[in-house]
Amino acid sequence: MSVIVELSIFPMDKGVSVSPYVARAVKIIQGSGLPYESNPMGTCIEGQWPEVVKVVDQCFKDLQNDCDRIYLTIKADYRKNRSNGLAGKMASVESQL
To answer: Which pTM value belongs to this model?
Structure first.
């Protein structure tokens, strides 16, 4: 696996609490079978670029069904020949603490 994408997606037209919509996106990510980690500000997904982008697109299209305004940010970190990057990046930082 060579790319880690951090995704944050939520509707802007559904009031203050948007956790039901965020949960819908996380369920799609879970169903993809790709490694992922959720945090309070988004979800990181690891895989090959085409499969990760496909999951992001599925999340967007799901919310698009009943949301008139969607906020979406994506950050990507590509590294050739990397595997287990989600755990490896954190272990590297924690070893320095």
So the answer is: 0.90
What's the distance, CA 94 to chain centroid? 22
Q: Which amino acid is at 80?
A: K
Instruction: Please state, in angstroms and rounded to a whole number, the distance separating the CA atoms of residues 42 and 38.
Output: 6
The CA distance from 10 to 69, in Å, is: 9
What is the Cα–Cα distance from 94 to 76, expressed in whole angstroms?
A: 21
Which pairing describes strands 70-78 and 42-47: parallel, antiparallel, or unpaired? unpaired
Q: Are 24 and 97 in contact (CB under 8 A)?
A: no
How many CA atoms lie less than 13 Å away from 19 in the CB half-sphere? 4
Residues 30-43 pLDDT 10s? 999 999 999 999 99
Which run of H or E residues covers position 42? Answer: strand 42-47
